[in-house]
Amino acid sequence: MRIHIVAVSGTGMGPLAGLLAELGHSVSGSDVAFDPPMGPALEAWGIRCLKGFDPAHLDGSGGAAPELVVVGNVCRPDNVEARAAFERGFEVTHLAGALGRFVLEGSAPLVVAGTHGKTTTTALAAHLLDRTGFEPGFLIGGLPADFPRSFRKPGPRRLSGNRPRRTPFVIEGDEYDTAFFEKTAKFLHYRPEVAILTSIEHDHIDIYPTLDAYLDAFRKFVALLPEHGLLVAYAGDPLVRAVARLARCDVAYYALEGEDTGDVSPHWVIAPATSDERAQSFDLFAGGVSCGRFALSLPGRHNLRNALAAIAAAAQGFGAPIVELARALASFRGVRRRQELLGTPGGVSVYDDFAHHPSAVRETLAALRARHREGRLIAVFEPRSATACRRLHQDEYPPAFAAADIVLLAPLGRQNLPASEALDLSALVAELQKSGKHAESPPDHAAIVERIAELARPGDVVALLSNGAFGGVTRRTVERLAQTGG
After folding, report:
1. Considering only the top CATH level, what class is 98-330?
2. How far apart are the first and last CA of the chain?
3. 3-class SS of residue 180
4. So where are the chain's domains?
5. Burial 235-247 (b: 16+ CB within 10 A, else e)
6. Whole-prediction pTM value?
7. Class in CATH terms, 2-93
8. Span 176-228, pLDDT tens digits
9. What is the per-residue pLDDT for 284?
10. Taking the alpha carbons of 351, 33, 173, 361 in that order, is the dihedral positive or negative?
11. Which of 462, 446, 459 is nearest to 339 (CA)?
12. Which residues contact 217 (CB under 8 A, 6 or more apart)?
């Protein structure tokens, strides 16, 4: 088909465009900018890129008009190009609709859902299934180190006995809304046969004003699983346990040894063994039976949970052999912007991470502290999401920085919130200082880079935490530390 995508440069829409092109469609896309890395990537994938939003883009620019228009969820109802697509009678859909039509039909979807850990767990599951011969397709909301792209079409069907076996398609199940004309969660469109539920903690307050509204999206997601399906659920989260009980299918609970799992006895259990700067090892148990010792290159207990969820889904959901999964896991290299080491300019280790929710900040900093036991940990945090910018987690943020020695807080990413609703940075700084930490809130991104350069010493670790571009702080920090020599 001829397919046109409005707002194609996003982390979800760009890979969708590449996936559609890989499936043989002729794809064009429009956006306000085509900056690196997405702009060059789109061109390399054969996407015709059109600058700006203009109804004329729907004319085909000298060629035939598109047969289908896909509208990104960043578009608002007043987007002139999206509005023209509806007014002129084009067939219009969204990311989830396009996936359902062109990819999910005929495959066996493995959907990774939860407040935290989705991207890493999706990449882990795709990697494990790939290395054990399943040739899965996937769409990952990040850049996995083990694949050349963040998307791939499913491989061919194979016989299982005398019956064709559908190929897995691994996808990150986002609970955020689908489009301005379809205000339901994306993952409600993904037809899961196997699902992972990593965690549930109130988020996306702009879409889900109450915890119950947020929970209801996950209840509906779990209800989609067929009776022959499988739900892999984290037993250490009481909200996950409550939602998982609603499943019609088998539930495979997982947890780390010693975690409080309520009235649930997890089938899949990890007992952490050793840890150093290169890897952590653990013993895996299934149904109380030892499956051997495994190794994971990623730090942190949260990544042990992510790995365990992916192992359980691959083994119990698709029949991947445990011994092969052990070898596959040892070769996993991670995902960009998830504790990604950018370099060590001037002897300072600089990491980039997507963490923004208090729980994610806490786990990320604890993992980096465990990996780097010497030197100071400097946490640089940008509250940017609709939830992070609000007072919802005002009391949860101070303990989230427990592992850090120094905390620098960037200005709120959303400046239009009433003072009564906005996260109080001054109060947060005062609370952190009261606990004995060096904490401050520089006035802008340039000042943050300068403070990092002034404070950081050889042997220190800088953790840059933001779910956005962070105003160029990431790149500028590495450059500035290289100039100062740490």
Report:
1. alpha beta
2. 53
3. coil
4. 2-93, 98-330, 340-484
5. bbbebbbebbeeb
6. 0.79
7. alpha beta
8. 889 999 989 999 999 999 999 999 988 887 888 899 999 999 999 999 999 99
9. 96
10. positive
11. 462
12. 175, 185, 187, 188, 208
